[in-house]
Structure formats: C-alpha cells, structure tokens
Amino acid sequence: MAKSKSTKASKKSNKQKAQNKRPTKKEREHKKAVRKMMVAFLMAFILFFAIIRLGVFGITAYNLVRVVLVA
Predict the structure, then answer these.
(1) For a disulfide at 27, which of 6, 11, 23, 71, Cβ 3.0-4.6 Å?
(2) Distance (Å, whole) CA 7 – CA 20
(3) What are the angstrom distances between the C-alpha of 8 and each of 15, 35, 55?
(4) Total domains present in the chain
(5) What is the pLDDT at residue 23?
(6) How far is CA 14 from the centre of its chain?
(7) What would the mean pLDDT of 15-35 be, rounded to a whole number?
(8) Which of 28, 40, 34 is nearest to 69 (CA)?
C-alpha cells in the first residue's frame, strides 16, 4: 500500500505551520529581556574599555554613545 497524498500534504502543512508559528507572549518577553541584558553587558564593556584605555576622551565618547542609543 502506498501512502496517500493527503498524509504527505498534511505533514508538509504541519511543517509550514511550525515554521510560521507566532511567538508566545512569554517568548517575546524572554527575547526582550535577553536583548536588554546583552545591551547592558555591551555598554558595561564599552565603559570599562573607555576608562582603562582612553581616559577622559573615552568617558566622553562613552557618554555620547549612551545618549545616542538610549534616546
């Protein structure tokens, strides 16, 4: 017995639905929190680099970057 086309079609349809699934509210919040955390770590790294390597000029550059990203 051969598989019917409807079985293949339904498997393909289910696969497409899984790929196009909208993220849940919890998933969106988690992604937003992860992105916020990554930005915080990046900004902290930039600040420490600015303090250690670039001195006063680095602090000024850091503040300019922070103002542009936050605003």
Answers:
(1) 23
(2) 20
(3) 11, 39, 65
(4) 1
(5) 87
(6) 26
(7) 87
(8) 40
Among residues 46, 26, 24, the alpha carbon closest in space to that of 34 is found at 26
**Alpha carbons 2 and 8: distance in angstroms, whole number:** 11
- The position carrying tokens 């919040």 is 29
Secondary structure of the chain as H, E, C letters: CCCCHHHHHHHHHHHHHHHCCCCCHHHHHHHHHHHHHHHHHHHHHHHHHHHHHHHHHHHHHHHHHHHHHHC
The answer to whether residue 13 is domain-embedded is no
Give, to the nearest 10 degrees, the angle between helix 55-70 and helix 25-49. 160
Q: How many residues does the chain have?
A: 71
* Residue 7 to residues 4, 18, 52, 54, Cα–Cα distance (Å): 6, 17, 63, 64
Domain containing 47: what range?
24-70
